[in-house]
Amino acid sequence: MPVSNAAIARSLEEVADLLELEGANPFRVRAYRGAARTVSGLSQNLSAMIAAGEDLAELPGIGADLAGKIAVIVDSGSLPLLDELRARTPPALAKLLGVPGMGPKRVRQLNAVLKVESLEDLRRAAAEGRIRDVPGFGEKTEANILSELTQGLVEEKRFLLAEVEELAGHLVAALSAVPGTREVVVAGSFRRRKETVGDLDVLAVAGDGAGLMERFTTLPDVARVLAHGETKSSVRLKNDLQVDLRVVPAESFGAALHYFTGSKAHNIAIRRMGQKQGLKVNEYGVFRGEEQIAGADEAGIYALFGLPEIPPELREDRGEIAAAANQTLPELITVSDLRGDLHVHSSDSDGRSSPAELAAAAQALGYAYLAVTDHSKRLGVARGLDAKRLRAQIRAIDDLNGALSGIVLLKGCEVDILEDGSLDLPDDVLGELDVVVAAVHSRFDLGPQQQTERFIRAMDRRCVNILAHPTGRLIGRRKPCELDLEKLFAAARERGVALELNAQPARLDLPDIHCQAAREAGVVIAIGSDAHAAGRLGDIRHGLDQARRGWLAAADVLNTRPLTELKRFLAR
Cys staple from 345: which of 9, 65, 322, 351, with CB 3.0 to 4.6 Å? Predict the structure, then answer.
């Protein structure tokens, strides 16, 4: 299996973390972080680029040395430097990096000041109130750390769905190539498109089960074989992800797929429905006594209970069974419903593609419109635009639209919401835009009332159309803001402001359950890729997965509307 870009980026990022933990030269640390960002943002697979003889040193921020290291990862699946760093970093100290909010600098600081060397040391220091006095921490940070450790969230190793997606595709392709193999499907939380996965459950129908298991356990990416049997084998991959493979009979494939897709709560609810009818529902099929009456496919299982097949994304026992029984399941949004993207960055701020390149990529996707929404000046690290530069971009986009055919570039800006709810740019320049995306990038620690009022004051500005990544979370790294979501939803609906579902894999913000609640509250959702390069516009698919988990239909999503209807909404 080719090494995925996500795996390469993760290795480079880990090198940067461990180097920084050791106090290495900051320029060296930044080089590895920059390379990780470049790799994450590529649309081409690095393994394929190397196989084609392309020079990786020509990529931004890579250079000859890092290109060589990437080639080593692609060739061997590992990096000697990373192995050395892991070997000389105490494992207990490295685990501290997994605590949300605890980057390498903070770990080093607590290690130096409080002699914190393990999760237990960290928990004890937080419980005793010693962390708050360390410069750069404070009482709230200490409380957050203690909360994370008390809930036991740190120990569970989970991977972003997007991180394992490419790997899962290679895995399915490799196993499907084994002669006699008829079906290979990744089930579990991966199939339900949850934002993170703990492991992969793979199901197969195969004429040569032994041959399939042999191929599975000897794949190049396998670090350790945990179990090797005739119908089930388990391996741990080099990225520490566990994968379980089960070979099932064709007549039981649907039942096994239903069972191992889950969720557990959904399965229990279906099983109880079966019990009421005197049926036994399990991973082998649906049985009346000893007779199997369903199980070859999932649709047949649901049909026994008078239900349409429930999409995997909805199988969380959050009302989907009742909705199916009442024929009120939504027709979930698909990629073909999208008419455009309303959150994209160009090289005028921190993106890597010009507006013209973004327009060409959007047109190739079949879009009718694309909003260029570069950062405002408050976000200096992103080379945000002040009023003068934004006006220059507005004129440039107008000129570009005059030359374009079949697609319209919308003039936009991702403008910062300041702590008091005011915006980073004045109304006169924002009023010249087609779309204003307002976003919080600082002071995530405000209390729920103050944070909610901050957002509402921003939405009171009639130029604001979309509230970007509203909870501010970064999965596994930063908790959501404390917000009164019911109040926020009501304010957005009343003001005609859409809430964004940001498709970046580490954000997926709004979360699925909040998408469902927003839909029920009558709030319009805008799915934005937040792409920073033309080749990343396709990342919007991650937002579509989340939208489907949030019960969203095409009518619930702003950027499924034709341009004329979209402009009516944006006019507020």
Answer: 351
Q: What are phi and psi of 288, to 5 degrees?
A: -110, 105
CATH superfamily, region 255-325? DNA polymerase, thumb domain (3.30.210.10)
Task: Read off the tokens for 395.
Answer: 């004129």
Residue range 335-570 forms a domain whose CATH class is alpha beta
Cα dihedral across residues 136, 140, 142, 144: positive or negative: negative
pLDDT band of 397, cuts 50, 70, 90: very high
Cα 440 to Cα 442: distance, rounded to the nearest angstrom: 6
Eight-class DSSP state of 412: E
Q: How far apart are CA 364 and CA 399, in angstroms?
A: 21
Q: pLDDT of 274-307, one tens digit each?
A: 999 999 999 999 999 999 999 999 999 999 999 9
DSSP string, 54-65: --GGGSTTTHHH
pLDDT for 151: 63
Cβ within 8 Å of residue 432, ≥6 positions away: 391, 394, 411
Question: Domain locations in the chain?
Answer: 5-150, 159-247, 255-325, 335-570
10-14-17-22 Cα dihedral, nearest 10 degrees: -170
Number of residues assigned to the chain: 572
Report the run of H or E that residue 414 belongs to, with start and end: strand 408-416
User: Which residue in 343, 407, 331 sits closest to 374, CA to CA?
Assistant: 343
What digits encode the pLDDT tens for the residues 372-381? 999 999 877 7
Amino acid code (one letter) for 300: G
CA 56 to CA 507: how far, in whole Å?
A: 28
DSSP string, 204-253: EEES-HHHHHHHHHT-TTEEEEEEE-SSEEEEEETTS-EEEEEE--GGGH
Residue 316 identity: E
Q: If we measure between CA atoms, which residue out of 537, 124, 117 comes closest to residue 353?
A: 537
Environment class of 360 (CB within 10 Å of its CB; exposed 0-12, middle 13-18, buried 19+): middle
Q: 120: closest CA among 156, 88, 152?
A: 152
Show the tokens assigned to 366: 């079949």
Residue 295 · residue 254 · CB < 8 Å: yes
Mean pLDDT, all residues of the chain: 91
Which numeric CATH code is attached to 5-150?
Answer: 1.10.150.110
Give the CA-trace dihedral at 76, 82, 86, 88, to 10 degrees. Answer: 120
- Measured distance between the N- and C-terminal CA atoms of the chain, rounded to whole angstroms: 50
Q: Check whether the bond before 353 is cis (ω within 30° of 0).
A: no
